[in-house]
Amino acid sequence: MGTERKPFAVVIGGGRVGTYLACKLTKVGGPVILKGRGASKPSKMKTQVELLCKEAGVVQTTSYESLYDTTVEYVFITTKTYDFDAVQKDLEAANVKAKVFVMIHNGIVKPMFENSVRVVVTQSWDFHETPGEGVGVKIVVRNEEKPWAMPNTPQAKEIEALLTKCGINASASKEFEFMLLKKYFINGVANLCAILGDCNCNGLLADHRDRMELLYAEIFSVLKNIHPEGFSMMPSDFHEAVFAGLATYGEHFPSTKMDFDAGLDLEIGSLNGYVLDMAKEQGIKVPATEELVALVRKKMVERDAKSE
């Protein structure tokens, strides 16, 4: 793995979030390993990640074999949610052990490790080129002042303290279930909708508010009986707070939109697909959500056909 000292943490997922986190973690422990997928061909993002990791002292790897029998304090999983099952199997096969597994993700997923902490983040990350400055690239964070939210548990308190030392605002809060829902609503009205609209968050609010309002109403009606704890914490102006929260992202393109443009698979199951599943269980009709998911899947087929 290219390191003599015992690794302190492993970050699974070499995208924007994983790279940002791995670089931050080097400030409080040593060595940090970033496990990426490994691009089959050179790309701008691959080069940018390599430059940032080299600058911060992050050790990069693309194979689970290189992690075999590794025991660390923390494993952070920052991959897309559709990869979670495979990541869990690969970590078990490689006998990777950790005191705490931390799952950082969009949408709503089931807990996957006995000793795990779920984290909800409200930031967005972009790589910006800085010719002639530093290593030529930097990570720009939007909404950096907002905390990474976790449940109010002893393990989460430990992660809160760790992230705080790294310079990441974090909060193990009794309001976690509400914060999870608020982020889910923002992602639910925006991420897949941005693919249909081919636009950023500003464009969504300017031109696609009607569709988003329908999605909001369906999410609300479906989830209110599934997540009573979070709904009990909702303020009277929750609707306004969701769209105001979306507005803070400005010209940022939702991550799912960026994945679509990059030809990648999409997080549907943990986003609007979750509403479809929960609606089916309750016998609730959600035509706007059904149409959204169907249109996005159709666009994926068309996109992939063009690339063949």
From TrEMBL:
This is 2-dehydropantoate 2-reductase. One of its GO terms (cellular component) is cytoplasm. GO terms for molecular function: 2-dehydropantoate 2-reductase activity; NADP binding. Residues 180-299 form the Ketopantoate reductase C-terminal domain. Gene3D superfamilies: N-(1-d-carboxylethyl)-l-norvaline Dehydrogenase, domain 2, NAD(P)-binding Rossmann-like Domain. Belongs to the ketopantoate reductase family. InterPro entries: 6-PGluconate_DH-like_C_sf, 6PGD_dom2, Ketopantoate_reductase, KPA_reductase, KPR_N, NAD(P)-bd_dom_sf.
